[in-house]
Amino acid sequence: MRNILLIILAGLLIYGCKKSKFSTTPQLTFKSLSPDVLYPDQLIRFRLNFTDAEGDLEDSLYVEKVVTRCNRGGFVEKYKMPVFPTGKNTEGEIEVVYAHGINIGGYYSIGAPQCDFNDTCFFRFMLKDKAQNRSDTVNSPTFVIIKQ
């Protein structure tokens, strides 16, 4: 009987110490990228998952384009987070979409390659909440932007 109580007590202790996926600092994870080769007149979609204990993601999403072979092709942008229903232990998905070589309302331009060859690049993302807490930076996989 004592052994059973010790096993149950140990199980409750381990379960009670389980780390919550929600924290004061926003958590950001990379989910997907589509497509991985971007041709002119196409859209590229980045999907990110987030969690936040306070649900105060009212500040900004920082996006950096890092071009590995051409220093002139990158950028850093800050976008205001849209208003959405929040509460304690908020989680959800963010979709970031860029257009390449076309002007479509509501989408930002990813920019054409600035050197004489296709851009091989990746994107970095970071969230900042209303209390100025910053998530870790997450990177997309490497992809190619085809020069027009």
Please give the structural blueprint.
Elements: H1 2-16, E1 27-34, E2 37-38, E3 42-52, E4 60-67, E5 75-80, E6 90-100, E7 108-109, E8 119-128, E9 138-139, E10 143-145
Parallel strand pairs: 2-10, 6-7
Antiparallel strand pairs: 1-3, 3-6, 4-5, 4-8, 8-9, 8-10
Give structural notes.
By secondary structure, the protein is mostly beta strands. 10% of the residues lie in helices and 43% in strands. The protein is built from one helix and ten strands, in the order αββββββββββ. The strands form two sheets. Strands 2, 4, 5, 8, 9 and 10 form a six-stranded mixed β-sheet that branches. Strands 1-3-6-7 form a four-stranded mixed β-sheet, with no helix packed on it. β4 and β5 form a beta hairpin. The N and C termini lie far apart (75 Å).
Summarize this entry quickly:
The longest helix is centred in the first third of the chain and has 15 residues.
Number of strands: 10
Kindly report how far apart the N and C termini lie. 75 Å
Low-pLDDT segments, ≥5 res: 1-18
Which band does the percent of strand residues land in? 35-45%
**Helix residue percentage:** 10-25%
Estimated radius of gyration = 20 Å
Order of helices and strands: HEEEEEEEEEE
Largest sheet: 6 strands, mixed
Mean pLDDT: 83
Features:
43% strand, 148 residues, mainly beta, 4-stranded mixed sheet, 10% helix, elongated, single chain, 1 helix, 6-stranded mixed sheet
